Amino acid sequence: MHLKNPMHNAVVFLAGLALLVPPAAGPSRGENGHARREGGAAATMPLAPQILVGAGDIAGCTDLSGAEATAKLINGIPGTVFAAGDLAYESGTAAEFMRCYGTTWGHHKSRTRPTPGNHEYAATDAAPYFNYFGAAAGEQGKGYYSYELGAWHIVVINSNCKYIGGCGPGSPQEKWLRQDLAAHHSACTLAYWHHPLFSSGAIPSHARTTAMRPIWQALYEAHAEVIINGHEHFYERFAPQDPGGNADAPHGIREFVAGSGGRDHGIFGFTQPNSEVRNSNTFGVLKLTLRATGYDWQFIPVPGKTFTDSGSGTCH
Known about the structure:
25% strand, alpha/beta, 7-stranded mixed β-sheet, globular
């Protein structure tokens, strides 16, 4: 007579029971890799807000007091630092980067993502700039790149067009930009470079750098939210507008000119359409808090100055 093993029967019973019980539900991952709650409407956990802070037109070697003051402001502000060109005057030499930029904003070099200005190209091929920042400045000879910051896609453009094959339609940078934007589907996009398309500055060569319109167009078509520039040595904020300068609250891009890093103070001329706020006598930094569905901005002045500007916007 064959005797059945009781332990064997128990194992078989438990194994069969396991087939009837669904596995415990664990967190799944949404498109951006964030934990998603199951059951009912799916909801992704938003990424934490991120800070982007900086300015352009920074360290004049004949007088470092402005750059020293703005660098101290950043000491107390966490996050990523943008440097919007013309960082070491007058000629962007290796010595000027070490002695002038390096002793002020250089304290934040490890968290800085720069873009070159025209003074960087006073040195051949902006080589001291690229050598100083290394990989953080993008590929040498190009200077345009992108990165992610929380929920935001950040695009860094080189507006020194004649040194990189142009900025017009079909140029290497414009083609790269369109490919980069098509490959990233972030809900919020911000771009920065040196020369502004829109400005109320009095210096004719500064006021409108029309070569940047195709770059604006590509960003506008991709529903970008914010563009930050320098070049003009003041602060100016524009209402959302299209690449032609027409007010466009639902779809337009808000431009900030933040050439307030410490070099000197510029002057205003004719106020351009859609210009909302202007100040030409205050060094300071622009701080943006980038949230999952919008952003807050704040202009922070150096001690002794009272001008400030703040507000919020939503992503398209």
